[in-house]
Structure formats: structure tokens, C-alpha cells
Design brief:
Low-confidence stretches: 1-5, 74-82, 260-264
Strand content: 15-25%
Strand order of the largest sheet: 3-11-10-9-4-5-8-12
CATH topology of the largest domain: Endonuclease, Chain A
Shape: elongated
Structural class: alpha+beta
CATH class of the largest domain: Alpha Beta
CATH architecture of the largest domain: 2-Layer Sandwich
CATH superfamily of the largest domain: Endonuclease Chain A
Order of helices and strands: HHEEHHHEHEHHEEEHEEEEHEH
Distance between the termini: 67 Å
Number of strands: 12
Length: 305
């Protein structure tokens, strides 16, 4: 029983390596169509079966590599291990080039090139994740913050003021807001800039408030202890295409959310590259310098809170 426990612990500790090795083995089997070892022999004469085997193998390798990076991403010196992983990809590529079936070969090359591209970005301290990771990584990052640390964030709602409603309607975003409050109670300093259009909030011709719900959400953030700023979209001087939702966690990690249309995130990009963090910090300061604290910004257009 003790040996079984040790075996299980060893597997858990090295499971990412297991996925990578298993993926390499399956890739070789799929590429060659057969594999023999001692009295064991396996053949995949069917082209579809070989293609599926190659695709599954590359997915396993990619999963193992990305999981391994996430596990060790906080140790900068370990990122260099990706060079060895790149060499592993080169070895796999040689086996793929030996595949005679063009369809299997071409699809395998596309998958391996995508994996290598992502690995190069990992070397640069950049990882792109799918929409299923939206807010999940933000929640994980904010939970690690400590007293005296700083979080700088933007929320771009200039295209549709409805984007603000997510703070009340989208459960993961509500959970993230709850983590904001917990972080503030721990002594973390949070600044959030809301980028919106003037006429989305206030009708200057009739001197009436157009969106009470949006105002309530802004006040909720300030009441929670967040330092809230408003930057009117019209006042921003930098390239407006550079405006996006991003979070800087204490000058260590930048998480940016890309919104193509309809307010739905389609990918999350994590940056731990020093130059990228500096770039986003400068961008944050530019946007902030174009705006005002919440009360002053609203007073400027005739709203008193």
C-alpha cells in the first residue's frame, strides 16, 4: 500500500511530463502507423485512425507543456526549460515529415506549428488562454495579493454602456468584484478606470441623468473602497485602438481581455514580460491622466453624488 501511495504521489508530481511523453509516443505511432516493442506490436493501417492518433498526441503534448509552464511560471529561471521543449518539437517534426499521407502530414504540421508558436510566446512571458479562463485567472491572481500591493485596472465601456451591467449580471464578474472587496480589506490598493462616453450617462441638453444603473455600479465600486476614475472616451489622446480591459497585478502580471464585439471576451492574455508590464503601466497612466476621480468627473458634467 505504501508503494502504491508513493507511485500515485510520483504520478501527481510529474503528471505533466507523463502527458508529454505519452503524447510523443502516440505521435510516433500515428506518424509511422505501427510500433513494436519486445512481444508487443501495434498497427494503425487506417488513415483516419492515424490522423486521430496524431491529433490526440499533439493535444496531449500541448496540454502538458502549457500546464508545466503554468506550474512553474513564477520561477523565471525555469522558463528557459522551454528551449528543451522546442527541441522536443523539432524531433516530433522530423517524424511528421516522414509521414507519407499528405492529409495527415499537413494537419499534423499545422498543429505542431501552432504549439511551437505558443511555446515561443511562453518564452517571451506571454500566454494566450481561451474565454473559459476569463475572470478565473484574475480571481486566482487577486487572491495572492498582500497588504501594500497595488492593482491597476481599466474597464472599457465606451462602445456600449451596457458592458458595465456585467458587474451585476455576470456571476464570474460578481465573484471577481467580491474578491476585490476582500483584497481591499487585506490592505491592497485598487485603482479602476472606467472609460465611457459622456452622453451615455448624462443628457446635457435636458440636464438629466440617462443611466441610473450605470451610476449605481460606479458608486458601488467607490463605496467598496476602490479608487474609481472616469476617463471620457472623447478626452483620450492616445491611439484609441489601444484601449482595452486590462489588470496589472502589482507590477508583476498583466492580464488583458480582448473584446471583439457584443461585450463577449474571446481570449485572455497573461503577460509576465517586464517590457509588456512597463508598456501597460504607461498606458494606464496615460488613460488616468486623461480622466478624473469619480466625483470630480461627474461634477464636471453636472451630476452631484
Amino acid at each position: 500500500m505504501n508503494q502504491l501511495n508513493q507511485l500515485l504521489q510520483s504520478f501527481i508530481k510529474h503528471q505533466n511530463l507523463f502527458f508529454i511523453v505519452l503524447g510523443v509516443i502516440l505521435c510516433i505511432i500515428g506518424a509511422s502507423g505501427d510500433m513494436s516493442f519486445a512481444n508487443f506490436s501495434l498497427k494503425l493501417p487506417d488513415i483516419t485512425g492515424r490522423l486521430i492518433t496524431v491529433i490526440v498526441s499533439l493535444l496531449l503534448i500541448s496540454f502538458g507543456l502549457i500546464s508545466e509552464w503554468r506550474l512553474k511560471s513564477e520561477k523565471a529561471d525555469e522558463i528557459s526549460q522551454n528551449e528543451n521543449m522546442t527541441k522536443g518539437f523539432d524531433i516530433i517534426s522530423k517524424h511528421i515529415n516522414a509521414i507519407e499521407d499528405k492529409e495527415i502530414k499537413n494537419k499534423s504540421i499545422l498543429i505542431i506549428n501552432e504549439a511551437k508558436s505558443r511555446l515561443r510566446r511562453i518564452d517571451d512571458g506571454i500566454v494566450v488562454l481561451g474565454p473559459e479562463h476569463t475572470y478565473r485567472t484574475a480571481i486566482d491572481n487577486i487572491r495572492t495579493t498582500k497588504k501594500g500591493e497595488n492593482i491597476l485596472a481599466t474597464h472599457a465601456a465606451h462602445e456600449h454602456i451596457d458592458y458595465l451591467y456585467g458587474w451585476e449580471d455576470i456571476i464570474p464578474l460578481k465573484n471577481y468584484f467580491a474578491e476585490n472587496i476582500k483584497a481591499i480589506n487585506r490592505g491592497v490598493n485598487i485603482e479602476r478606470i472606467f472609460i465611457i462616453m459622456r452622453d451615455a450617462i448624462f443628457d446635457s441638453q435636458t440636464s438629466t441623468i440617462k443611466n441610473e444603473r450605470a451610476l449605481k455600479i460606479l458608486r458601488d465600486h467607490e463605496d467598496a473602497g476602490i479608487h474609481v476614475y472616469i476617463t471620457w472616451f472623447e478626452n483620450i489622446l492616445l491611439n484609441k485602438n489601444m484601449i482595452s480591459d486590462f489588470i496589472i497585478f502589482d507590477k508583476f502580471t498583466v492580464e488583458s481581455h480582448d473584446i471583439p464585439a457584443g461585450g463577449l471576451y474571446y481570449q485572455v492574455t497573461i503577460r509576465r514580460n517586464v517590457n509588456e508590464i512597463i508598456k501597460y503601466t504607461e498606458r494606464f497612466n496615460e488613460i488616468k491622466n486623461s480622466g478624473l476621480p469619480l466625483k470630480k468627473a461627474l461634477n464636471e458634467i453636472g451630476i452631484n453624488i
